Amino acid sequence: MSKIVLFFLVSLVGCGKDNLREFYYNPDTFNEDQLSQLWYSVDLLNEITGCSQTPILVLKESRSKFYKFNGRSELWLSNDLEKNVGGLTTASLFEVDIQILNRTTSIRIVGQEVKELPFDFQSIFMHEFGHSFGLEHSKDDIDIMYESMRIYWDRPEVLARFAEQLRTVGAYCK
Ligand SMILES: [Zn+2]
Prior knowledge:
The chain has helices at 3-13, 32-48, 121-132, 156-168, and strands at 21-25, 57-61, 74-78, 87-91, 96-101, 105-110, 113-118. The chain is α/β, with parallel strands linked by helices. The chain has one domain: Collagenase (Catalytic Domain). The strands form three sheets. The protein has a three-stranded mixed sheet with strand order 3-5-4, with helices on one face. α2 crosses α3. The radius of gyration is 16 Å and the shape is globular. The relative contact order is 0.16. Bound molecules: zinc ion (ZN). Residues 127, 131, 137 line the site of zinc ion. Residues 127, 131, 137 line the site of zinc ion (ZN).
């Protein structure tokens, strides 16, 4: 069977479950901290959309090679994103791929000081997962979908806005 036919079948199987996003990831390529932030973000997104019992965002383990346009949705850490890009989501008809910048610290301005702080994977995971459900950027800097992350993203009001935006693109339990 050719790959193209297989992709077609996958997309048919996906019909009727279009609010479900299943991402393959390789746990061996994440360090412990990255992994716990990834799982926290997935749990939080399912929780705020009311989908803790029947998750709409699911991670699946895989150890095979990850790349764009192979017919399945994947999430992986990357060293080759453009400057100042923390994450990149690429969507095609058959898959959504998420690349996250692989680093442990970032330089940020806190008050008057420039500080080196732990890299905030959670905010980037949440933002890219938002893209995976079809959300575009927000012009409002209180939003997780704001282009650059300057907000205290885990505040209840920020998460409530995010949950509402996810609902508008069908990301909730049906
Ligand atoms: Zn974005």
